[in-house]
Amino acid sequence: MSLLVAPLALLGLLVGSFLNVVVSRVPAGESVVHPPSRCPTCGSRIRPWDNVPVLSWLVLRGRCRDCGTRISARYPAVEAATAVLFALVALLVGPWAVPAFAYLAAIGVALALIDLDTHRLPNAIVLPSYPVLGALLALASWGTGDWSALLRAVIGGTALWVAYFALCLAKPGGMGFGDVKLAGLLGGALAWLGWGPFAVGAFGAFVLGGLFAVVLLVTGRAGRGSGIPFGPWMLLGAGLGVAVGEPLWGAYLGLLV
């Protein structure tokens, strides 16, 4: 799998550049393909040579070539982070599963940023991801010959969707329905890998999100009624499940016996 790291990292840079457009336009209900990218201040169209991931931002010193307006450092950060995530996917999952988990990493970056910006997880991204991710996981099962993994994915995705739906009903306003829909996606992907990644990823979201909430409360940056986007913590928990879910779950079971 090490042979895939560099190509996937390069692909991640390109995908990350597109994700910047997605994060900006999808919440506003705008097309992600038209019109071409422009400077929001002067309206100048971004030249192709000024749209090279990370490198162009560095060459331009973080400013628009035409009007000198500062370009947010989040743009190259998203591109670099997506490249790192794609490289990690190449190292952590088998070759047949790479398309599914690279796709999940890509939409995860977009959804996390949109949720932080708007406290929303747009249906325009989440709902089409069900058939896309389902097809990619089916491809992975076909390639590995492990059809039980696909059945496990269906069970895991359904179970986590139902669990989040129950939480949503139990405490209205405490969890959005966007989180419920995202739970089905993450549960399916994690369960495809195994019940260890599923358990660690599912519980990891609440542990990480809870710790963050405690820090905000202790430092006075949030009160008991403050709304904290949970989508990013669900995605971080899922990443934890993919990366170390199996050994962590094995260690936990070892303590029990």
Write a structural description.
There is one protein chain. The chain has helices at residues 2-25, 55-59, 74-92, 98-118, 123-144, 147-170, 177-193, 195-218, 231-256. Helix 4 packs antiparallel against helix 5 (123-144) and helix 5 runs parallel beside helix 7. The model has no long low-confidence stretch (mean pLDDT 91). The chain contains nine helices and no strands. The longest helix is centred in the last third of the chain and has 26 residues, at 231-256.
Task: Supply the number of helical segments.
Answer: 9
**Alpha-beta classification:** mainly alpha
Fraction of helical residues: over 70%
Q: Low-confidence segments, ≥5 residues, pLDDT <50? A: none
Report the biggest beta sheet as strand number plus sense, adding barrel if it closes.
Answer: none
Shape: globular
Structurally, how many domains make up the residues?
2
DSSP E strands, number: 0
The arrangement of helices and strands along the chain is: HHHHHHHHH
Average pLDDT: 91
Radius of gyration equals: 19 Å
Strand content: under 5%
Protein name: Prepilin leader peptidase/N-methyltransferase
GO biological process, one term: signal peptide processing
Catalytic activity: Typically cleaves a -Gly-|-Phe- bond to release an N-terminal, basic peptide of 5-8 residues from type IV prepilin, and then N-methylates the new N-terminal amino group, the methyl donor being S-adenosyl-L-methionine
GO cellular component, one term: plasma membrane
